[in-house]
Amino acid sequence: MMWHFKGQRVRRLTMSSDNIGEQHSQIHAIRLPPLVALRCFEAAARLESFSRAADTLNLTHGAVSRAVRLVEDDLGVALFERRSRRVFLTDAGRKLAQAVREGFALVEAAVHEIKEEARVPALVVSCEPTLLMRWLIPRLPDFQRQHPDVPVHLVAGGGSVTLGRGIDLAIRRNDFEQAELVHAIPLFRERTGPVCRADKVMSFFAPSDASRLPELRHDAVLLHARSRPDAWETWARLSGCRTLGRRSQSFEHFYISLQAAIAGIGVAVGPWQLVRDDIDSGILAAPMGFSEDGTVYQLLAPAAIATQSPHAKLRDWLLAAAI
User: Fold this and answer.
1) Contact by Cβ (8 Å): 163, 170
2) Is residue 32 within 8 Å of residue 1, measured between CB atoms?
3) Fold match between 123-186+296-321 and 189-293?
4) For residue 303, what are the CA distances in angstroms to 112, 124, 159, 169, 231?
5) Which pairs from 258-264 meet CB under 8 Å and 24+ separation?
6) Which of 30, 140, 195, 219 is the most buried (most CB within 10 A)?
7) What one-character-per-residue DSSP string does 180-245 give?
């Protein structure tokens, strides 16, 4: 026998029986109605309405009606009593509805469990709050584009950190004594300098000639932060500038002092990595430049990072982003 497809002659493929169909063999299992039709039947049975089932499944009323009729024809029994615009389950319909609901529930539970087992656990990274908000988060979409297979969960934190107990990696400035031995990878040196709103430079800094840097005006408002109280003192010592006697305003957190500088309230000590985006966009200015303060931001790991691991992918991306 020949089959014809678009003008071509194709021989029919035939197969012979292997005679292994015993009485209880799965080869002779009862054929089930189509899964889609059973889904339509279950929705109609649960809602007692073909119309509402159609709305729930985003199908037409006719599609649901035909699917239910297909199941009924396949089983040879009526599953619903149709009265006016409502439908009611028959005894056979109730029996099938319960079995279908239980079956779908088992399948959904198994699918959920399999997906959970296959899901790659997120890499939990603890980072100092200001660095997290002003440097890491704005750049994170780039890492996600490059490594969509490595989910990252960020946690704000500072100071000593215990790795391996819910925290995989941490980013810290080495201005404290770490309580436990860790593997530290330097990311970038800390460089700081006075920053203010770009259109406020003349209000807070005295003009100078090309041979020297501008100087802070005596009436400039210095913005301090309780979370980094020595920022101005450290910068003044390294740069040889005096900051005593000037007006000041203090804020609870370092990132708030930087936000105050953006608002034009005064001059804050701005680490280069934390203000570089605002300087590039023209929001902030750093008339006196930046100086290294001797500290380094590091990526902390509980042990040496294995090659090709998710940890290594994040480490390499951080090193590139810090340039």
Assistant:
1) yes
2) no
3) yes
4) 34, 15, 19, 10, 32
5) 258/130, 258/134, 258/195, 260/223, 261/195, 261/196, 261/197, 261/223, 262/197, 263/197, 264/196, 264/197, 264/199, 264/200
6) 195
7) S--EEEEEEEEEEEEEEEGGGHHHHEE---TTS--EE-TTPPEEEETTSTTHHHHHHHHHT---TT
- Nearest Cα neighbor of 97 from 72, 123, 122 is 72
> What is the three-class DSSP state of 152?
strand
Rounded Cα distance, 142 and 122, in Å: 17
Tell me which residue has tokens 């023209």. Answer: 282
CATH topology of domain 189-293: D-Maltodextrin-Binding Protein; domain 2 (3.40.190)
What tokens does 205 get? 């800094």
CATH number of 30-118: 1.10.10.10
The radius of gyration computed from the CA coordinates of the chain, to the nearest angstrom, equals 35
The C-alpha atoms of residue 35 and residue 53 are separated, in whole angstroms, by: 15
